[in-house]
Amino acid sequence: MNRKLSIVIPCHNEEQNIEHLIAEIDRTLADIDYPYDLILVDDGSRDKTIDVLKSASSRNTHVFYVELSRNFGKDQAMKAGIEIANGAAVITMDADLQHPPEKIKEMIKSWEEGYDIVYTYRAEANPHASRNQQRGSRVFYKAINAISDIQLESGIADFRLMDARVIAELRKIDEYEIFLRGIIKWVGFKQKGIPYTPAERHMGEASYSYKKLIKLAVTSVMAFSVRPLYIATGLGLFFSLSATLYIPYILISYLAGYAVSGWTSLLATVVFFGGIQLMVLGIIGMYLGKLFMQAKHRPNYIIRSTNLEQTK
Ligand code: UDP
Ligand code: MG
């Protein structure tokens, strides 16, 4: 019976963390009774990450590397690792040691109890994040939960265990711009969340900028809901109704002979409705753009090289 664990780790400019990461995982998993693979996915790093990965994999039989052809983003890098993995369970975690390897034991315990997905969420506000980051993260989850059809715990992480039957379903999903944290909720199965306390990033700098985070928020809302389109329609309806009520008033003013004084209100109305129209068009355009990209059916990632056997 396959009992192997595949641990998938996306790496973007993590040359300083990899050695320590592998050592920590080896140390933690030494006292559990499961064989395991470490699948490290180099997501188009500009530093020497791939060299470190190659040399680690030549010394350590647990370690395998997957080199992507460029930077595809964390979710796509994780997807690459998940799809190439062949364990009875796949665990994803970050390369910077913010996800404590110790927790893997707890995940495995829940998996043995019969859970298909064991995900983690931050126990409390991340003590290492700046105040702005904390606020940003809260707004991020509030927005997603309010607008889209899935509910995410605040601080839910990409640190999770998934049974092979979940992986089989994930493989079937052919979505341009996947958002795994959402997809994982969407697939269902028996799920359990366990809290974890994030550690400080071991070395180097976080790759996510505000721009990337905003993009992620928009992607995740749009991937799980067309509600923004309803909002757009609602706004359009509200303002055209108001305009219909306003027009008789304008006409009566004209007939009564004091029309010219309305220049300011006219301009205000034009500008205002212009704005609303642009916004609605923008929302429709964004969905159309996503459809366009999806219609191309491009792969989520391209593998340049790997020392794993490729199944796809
Ligand atoms: N990462 C990646 N591709 C990217 C950005 C990040 O594979 O384009 C990886 C990174 O190497 C790390 C994980 O995703 O293993 C989380 O990234 P980071 O620590 O920069 O973000 P944060 O801790 O703020 O979530
Ligand atoms: Mg990090």
From TrEMBL:
<keyword id="KW-0472">Membrane</keyword>
<feature type="domain" description="Glycosyltransferase 2-like">
    <location>
        <begin position="6"/>
        <end position="169"/>
    </location>
</feature>
<feature type="transmembrane region" description="Helical">
    <location>
        <begin position="263"/>
        <end position="288"/>
    </location>
</feature>
<dbReference type="InterPro" id="IPR029044">
    <property type="entry name" value="Nucleotide-diphossugar_trans"/>
</dbReference>
<dbReference type="GO" id="GO:0005886">
    <property type="term" value="C:plasma membrane"/>
</dbReference>
<keyword id="KW-0808">Transferase</keyword>
<protein>
    <submittedName>
        <fullName>Dolichol-phosphate mannosyltransferase</fullName>
    </submittedName>
</protein>
<dbReference type="InterPro" id="IPR001173">
    <property type="entry name" value="Glyco_trans_2-like"/>
</dbReference>
<dbReference type="Pfam" id="PF00535">
    <property type="entry name" value="Glycos_transf_2"/>
</dbReference>
<keyword id="KW-0812">Transmembrane</keyword>
<keyword id="KW-0328">Glycosyltransferase</keyword>
<keyword id="KW-1133">Transmembrane helix</keyword>
<dbReference type="GO" id="GO:0016757">
    <property type="term" value="F:glycosyltransferase activity"/>
</dbReference>
<dbReference type="InterPro" id="IPR050256">
    <property type="entry name" value="Glycosyltransferase_2"/>
</dbReference>
<feature type="transmembrane region" description="Helical">
    <location>
        <begin position="229"/>
        <end position="251"/>
    </location>
</feature>
